[in-house]
């Protein structure tokens, strides 16, 4: 059988096709993420964008003033070689580069600072950095000199600071080919920026004229010295000639010849020297007049010349007050802020999506154990229940769903319900209190029994200290010195059919009470309480930490296992289930707890309805009937034998 090569080639996927499919898959995944977590993206992006916009609005604007200066293109001419200018082709570019370096030098900056008294400008005032403040604090704490106490004086440090600021804000540019140079200065005050740029240009031109004047003065001094030497030579030659004539009587032909030639030579060189000297003096006078003219033109702000090659520096364009800020670029910055905000929103959405997927994976692992999941509670056990109405409504809907599952879908009637967890801080105590109140809202007489005797009275997160006797006293705490009656130990929550039996005053302080949980006294007490109450909700200590819950599990009709999805451990959950089954406990199911971010997904996944906006409006929640009221402030408790309770349904949160 022959195989078609074209079919084989068509079946193979090229790297380009694989890359296209991968990119398309990533794009589809990103679009799906935007759809799933659109509100997370919008909220995070809006918060980040508003924060960045506020920062941009607080940025100090900066303005840049610019002036155009022409640099000198030829060196100072030597009057002696003015007639024969033989300049190297590389000399003009070298001179331009040198002048550009002088234009941006620190010497010009120092003169401008002194001329304008920038040390007195408020915007140039010293602002110590956090490093300086930290070093000064360390020096004052550990001893030693502060930053200012150094080898330099305060004035020297201040001048150096001003010079560094000036040089940082100053910018000079020359392309190395033309004589045009740009001077720019960036500052928050536009008027001061223009003033500094014009002063910098004027200072540079003044320095350039000073250098040219000094050079010409040096040439004049040199020529004057040469003329003095020539005159001295003439006087010496004349004196020697006179001496020779006196010695020979004046009749020697050699003396006459030397005298004539020497006098002629000296007489011929003197006019040349005088001409050079006059030319140098003229150049000096011309330079001085140029200085006066340049100063006048600087004040007038006009062009000195139309050509771009000159012996002197010129200001072509003086700096005007800038009206357009160069920093911050608001439009560009806002565009960057929008991109960063969108990226932050996507990043947070990816994190939330990852945590939600972990939530679903953990829930799937719980389901694989074989126990039914009765519901999911959006409970953040690290803080008290939020006072937000929407969060309270959602929480109570979740509690009602778990309550209904216990009432209608369990094999046994919900008479004694044990709420247990594998580890601490999984929401067990608060869930037990809310479940007890939810049962009481149906009109049943409900007892909330705090069997966590490991905590002292008043330490429990569910039942505050009531200052009364409790379970530990009924079990014969403090060495069995008497037992308090049930009527004094059980407290009624005013306005509801809910009653509370706290851990007691001796809880956590007497080992006899803890050991009494395994004694025959506890089963008798539970049987006595069954006759008085329709539902008993027992809050127990963590099963994997202490063994108290195993004694309670044998007495309960239904055991409710709470599992925090964020702290999920398959090994701990499996160990808890093994211990409960060893006690022959009736495990009704598992309730998943976690943060409110994933509550909606968990409720929808396990069949509990999420209340709509209309349902939230119809739900009546009195402030005293929230879990926060159980946790924060109980009403004044009354003994069971006190005044009759009002109808529970009228005050229930259902």
Automatic annotation (TrEMBL):
GO cellular component entries: plasma membrane
CDD domains: BY-kinase
Transmembrane feature ranges: 39-57, 330-352
Pfam families the UniProt entry points to: AAA_31, Wzz
Domain Polysaccharide chain length determinant N-terminal: 27-115
EC number per UniProt: 2.7.10.2
One function term, GO molecular function aspect: protein tyrosine kinase activity
InterPro entries noted in UniProt: AAA_dom, Bact_polysacc_biosynth/exp, LPS_length_determ_N, P-loop_NTPase, Wzc-like_C
Family named by the database record: Belongs to the CpsD/CapB family. Belongs to the etk/wzc family.
UniProt name for this protein: non-specific protein-tyrosine kinase
Species for this entry: Afifella marina DSM 2698
């Amino acid at each position: 059988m022959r195989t078609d090569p074209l079919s084989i080639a068509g079946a193979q996927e090229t790297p380009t096709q694989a890359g296209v499919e991968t990119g398309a898959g990533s794009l589809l995944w990103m679009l799906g993420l935007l759809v799933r977590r659109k509100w997370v993206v919008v909220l995070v992006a809006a918060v980040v964008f508003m924060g960045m916009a506020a920062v941009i609005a607080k940025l100090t604007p900066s303005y840049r003033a610019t002036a155009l200066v022409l640099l000198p293109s030829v060196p100072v001419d030597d009057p002696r070689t003015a007639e024969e200018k033989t300049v190297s082709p590389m000399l003009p570019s070298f001179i331009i580069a040198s002048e550009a370096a002088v234009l941006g030098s620190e010497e010009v900056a120092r003169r401008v600072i002194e001329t304008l008294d920038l040390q007195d400008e408020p915007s140039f005032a010293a602002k110590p950095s956090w490093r300086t403040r930290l070093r000064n604090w360390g020096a004052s704490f550990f001893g030693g000199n502060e930053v200012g106490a150094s080898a330099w004086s305060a004035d020297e440090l201040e001048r150096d600071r001003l010079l560094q600021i000036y040089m940082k804000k100053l910018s000079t540019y020359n392309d190395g080919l033309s004589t045009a140079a740009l001077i720019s200065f960036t500052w928050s005050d536009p008027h001061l920026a223009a003033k500094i740029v014009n002063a910098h240009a004027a200072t540079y031109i003044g320095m350039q004229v000073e250098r040219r004047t000094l050079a010409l003065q040096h040439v004049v001094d040199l020529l004057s010295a040469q003329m003095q030497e020539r005159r001295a030579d003439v006087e010496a030659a004349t004196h020697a000639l006179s001496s020779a004539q006196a010695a020979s009587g004046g009749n020697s032909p050699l003396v006459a010849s030397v005298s004539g030639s020497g006098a002629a030579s000296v007489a011929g060189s003197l006019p040349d020297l005088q001409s050079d000297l006059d030319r140098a003096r003229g150049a000096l006078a011309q330079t001085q007049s140029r200085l006066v003219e340049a100063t006048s033109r600087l004040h007038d702000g006009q062009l000195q010349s139309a050509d771009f090659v000159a012996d002197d520096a010129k200001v072509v364009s003086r700096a005007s007050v800038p009206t357009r800020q160069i920093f911050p670029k608001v439009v560009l910055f806002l565009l960057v802020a929008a991109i960063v905000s969108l990226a932050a929103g996507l990043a947070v959405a990816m994190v939330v999506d990852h945590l939600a997927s972990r939530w679903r994976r953990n829930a799937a692992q719980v389901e694989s154990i074989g126990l039914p999941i009765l519901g999911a509670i959006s409970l953040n056990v690290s803080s008290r229940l939020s006072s937000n109405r929407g969060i309270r409504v959602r929480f109570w809907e979740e509690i009602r769903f778990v309550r209904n599952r216990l009432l209608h879908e369990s094999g046994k009637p919900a008479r004694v319900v044990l709420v247990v967890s594998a580890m601490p801080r999984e929401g067990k105590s608060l869930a037990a209190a809310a479940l007890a109140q939810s049962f009481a809202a149906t009109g049943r007489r409900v007892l909330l029994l705090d069997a966590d005797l490991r905590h002292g009275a008043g330490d429990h997160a569910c039942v505050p200290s009531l200052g009364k006797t409790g379970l530990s006293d009924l079990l014969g705490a403090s060495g069995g010195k008497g037992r308090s009656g049930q009527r004094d130990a059980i407290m009624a929550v005013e306005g509801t059919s809910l009653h509370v039996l706290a851990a007691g005053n001796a809880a956590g302080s007497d080992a006899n009470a803890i050991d009494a949980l395994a004694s025959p006294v506890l089963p008798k007490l539970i049987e006595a309480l069954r006759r008085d109450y329709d539902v008993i909700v027992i809050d127990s200590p963590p099963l994997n930490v202490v063994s108290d819950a195993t004694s309670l599990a044998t007495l309960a009709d239904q055991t409710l296992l709470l599992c925090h999805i964020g702290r999920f451990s398959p090994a701990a959950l499996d160990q808890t289930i093994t211990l409960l089954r060893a006690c022959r406990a009736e495990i009704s199911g598992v309730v998943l707890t976690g943060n409110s971010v994933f509550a909606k997904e968990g409720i929808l996944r396990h069949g509990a309805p999420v209340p709509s906006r209309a349902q939230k409006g119809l739900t009546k929640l009195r402030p005293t009937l929230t879990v926060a009221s159980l946790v924060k402030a109980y009403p004044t408790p009354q003994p069971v034998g006190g005044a009759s309770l009002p109808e529970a349904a009228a005050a229930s949160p259902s």
